[in-house]
């Protein structure tokens, strides 16, 4: 009898293991582990001192992460110890140590080069790894289940004629109980046919209402719309975006699964991929936004709930007093307020299709607002950086964001200058080897992101532009926007032209609900 029982247990264990192995996404595993080749080649050509320096910094970083996990999850009374300020002091001590030991030549170029190499290690083996692990366990795939909450969708619109109707129609066509859905379109003083286009839907559907106000900006349009909202969950959708049929069910699912979640982000997809610029933007979204959000979702600290599709618990919005006029990126600012209030912010599989700028000029105008707003938001919430009581937000999310916003754009041009000097002095093969390494890593990250997100594999062709060309455009714009914010220029709202509207029309400079 015991032999039969043992055989039965072994058989059940084998079946369980078989199901587990079948559940593994092996293509993602192969893509992730293939990075061992370029990293191995890089390590092989590095000097011993550089390897020691990277290993020492890696040890410091791992110790910081493990300690952060311990104090946040297990023992908050020690949260003030070894926080971001202590890490900064440790970083200075680290630099002094490796210079004293002769592992690093004390020069700005050497420090920036070491920082770039370390960051690519950290990004791949920490951020990309968590996103990969996140995908393997299916953490973001909350299963929508009834009963569904009452939802109010707010659509702020300024001069969105030809777009707002499609947005409303997509919401009416969404797979969501009609009796639990209301749609409120807010006309923010449009000067075109936006109000009439939205009102036509209100005349034929009792689920749609339209309100109008004088132009005051997107934040004021959303706050005004909240006055007419009855739902327990507030969903915001930009007037140029189209939600997937199951998007509403998917974006509210995390609220039912976890009462600590205060806001939920969506998966943003560009629909007009008919040019080099828009395809580069989709690849940027795939590896720079969606992958990054998946990693932060593991800790409940997704930093931006996108305005094109995002969801909030109504009581959380009321708790943080909704939208502020302080920045040009109201979505980033509001998400920070929700996180600071102690709520988790998660990501969902809700997909939204949005229009991306189709020309360099329009991309410049869009990102001018985004990057200025990002710096304004970070400076507004600067106390979080040095306050360890905010947990993972201050210990992980913001430090990464600060490096991304302040160090990387400047380091990019220092490295470019160094590369130019190497080329002029005859080190062409060295430059080529460095380019191949960084491109291969970006290529693998892009491939992993495409696999996870189910994106178009043809986007991989544009991966080199995220190393040279497209990247420098954004780095230069980031530096310009940082200077704008620091010297407090008149930071007016800038807006990209719409493809299906007259591109030659001169847009007004009033702050738009866009």
Automatic annotation (TrEMBL):
<keyword id="KW-1133">Transmembrane helix</keyword>
<feature type="transmembrane region" description="Helical">
    <location>
        <begin position="84"/>
        <end position="103"/>
    </location>
</feature>
<keyword id="KW-0472">Membrane</keyword>
<feature type="domain" description="Glycosyltransferase 2-like">
    <location>
        <begin position="152"/>
        <end position="321"/>
    </location>
</feature>
<keyword id="KW-0808">Transferase</keyword>
<feature type="transmembrane region" description="Helical">
    <location>
        <begin position="51"/>
        <end position="72"/>
    </location>
</feature>
<feature type="transmembrane region" description="Helical">
    <location>
        <begin position="402"/>
        <end position="421"/>
    </location>
</feature>
<keyword id="KW-0812">Transmembrane</keyword>
<dbReference type="GO" id="GO:0016757">
    <property type="term" value="F:glycosyltransferase activity"/>
</dbReference>
<dbReference type="InterPro" id="IPR001173">
    <property type="entry name" value="Glyco_trans_2-like"/>
</dbReference>
<dbReference type="Pfam" id="PF00535">
    <property type="entry name" value="Glycos_transf_2"/>
</dbReference>
<feature type="transmembrane region" description="Helical">
    <location>
        <begin position="24"/>
        <end position="45"/>
    </location>
</feature>
<keyword id="KW-0328">Glycosyltransferase</keyword>
<protein>
    <submittedName>
        <fullName>Family 2 glycosyl transferase</fullName>
    </submittedName>
</protein>
<feature type="transmembrane region" description="Helical">
    <location>
        <begin position="109"/>
        <end position="133"/>
    </location>
</feature>
<feature type="transmembrane region" description="Helical">
    <location>
        <begin position="427"/>
        <end position="450"/>
    </location>
</feature>
<dbReference type="InterPro" id="IPR029044">
    <property type="entry name" value="Nucleotide-diphossugar_trans"/>
</dbReference>
